[in-house]
Design goal:
Blueprint lengths: L10 H5 L10 E6 L6 E6 L2 E7 L12 E4 H8 L18 E6 L1 H7 L3 H19 L1
Antiparallel strand pairs: 1-2, 1-5, 2-3, 4-5
């Protein structure tokens, strides 16, 4: 007698409502050796399915943060009393990769890095001219 136990995991439900409003444009890629990878975009508390495969922009490849799902689980329950069955990493372990996107880049990029030095030079020039 042989049995097989399989379970569907809705990753969207695990990653929704984990970030506040205004935290937009984070791409999360889930993948394993046994299944095709798929990508979600987190926009604050909302999660959007982008499709199968790694749907992130390749120009942010060097900024990826990657971890095995089981490692994240160990970190999340480190100080809890959870005593459930651990995820098995021997067969088809899932990996999570997090990438920024253009939407996130635009939100956190500013022109202040040029404006402030110019203001300092103008104030210094004005102070020098007065004295």
């Amino acid at each position: 007698l042989v049995g097989l136990f399989a379970m569907s995991i809705y990753w969207r439900d695990f990653i929704k409502d984990i970030l506040p409003e205004g935290s937009d444009g984070i791409n999360v890629v889930f993948g394993s050796e046994c299944n095709p990878s798929f990508t979600y975009e987190i926009n604050g508390p909302k999660v959007v399915f982008l499709g199968t495969g790694a749907q992130h922009d390749n120009k942010y490849e060097n900024m990826a943060i990657s971890s095995m799902v089981n490692d994240l689980r160990d970190f999340a329950i480190k100080n809890s009393t959870y005593s459930g069955i651990p995820i098995n990493n021997d067969y088809c372990p899932f990996q999570v990769q997090i990438f920024p996107s253009d939407k996130m880049w635009q939100e956190y990029t500013t022109s202040d890095r040029i404006l402030f030095p110019i203001m300092v030079v103008v104030i210094f020039a004005f102070t020098s001219a007065v004295f």
